Prior knowledge:
Oligomer: single chain
CATH topology: Rossmann fold
Number of strands: 11
CATH architecture: 3-Layer(aba) Sandwich
Helix content: 25-40%
CATH superfamily: Vaccinia Virus protein VP39
Largest sheet: 7 strands, mixed
Distance between the termini: 32 Å
Radius of gyration: 17 Å
Amino acid sequence: MTIANGPRAGLRLPRPPVPPAPSNTVLADEHTGMQHAVVTRHPRFGGQLFLDDDLQISESDVAYGVAMASPLLAHPRLERVAVLGGGDGGVLAELIRTLEPLDGLPSELTMVEIDPRVMALCREHLSALCGDAFDSPHARIVTGDAFAWIAQAHDLDAVVYDLTMDPVREGQSRAEFITGIIGHIARALRPGGVLSMQCCGHGRDDAADRILRREVLPLIRQAVDAHFVERCEQDVLVPSYQDLWTFLSARKA
């Protein structure tokens, strides 16, 4: 049974829990019915979203959204684009901010996020990150299971994957999960369609993260190379992570 509706639905890469620093101002602290959400304000990084004690994103982390959105600029014409996850709204906002001046906004820009309360909290407290993306006439927000949604999708020009690398079904290995989700994305894309995704951190100051990176990144590369060409990776310093983060893009053959 999928746990995309469960407490780890919004997490990106499994990391040791990083609870909010005691000096942070707590703006919201609640259980959404799916996960424990805390929003704080950091003196350096601005508003921060924690899910189940794991830092997701901060208002300082615009570089994350830029890294996710920029690969789509290479597509000659975007008509149908999907963002899987991304409940903080940062990736969606960056897509709109980047593509609109270029007259490149897709006719159908869909974001699929499981937890409506997370979106509401980010709209209220992380406006420097998400702006008015949730209310944009260019975006369609779907509240639901992104894994189930992409399994049924088709004829997409681009998919931005902003979800976990953790297995979502009990008893499922990480290799099975990554192979499965990349396969679903590939089937949903038109030939020439673009995949953009986050992969993992470098773990510059964390030995456990470095070990996890050595497991996760080869699995992602193998799964992507089975369906895509022109795989490209970029390493970006995400301020509040205090680490380099690897992002990957590729084109469906």
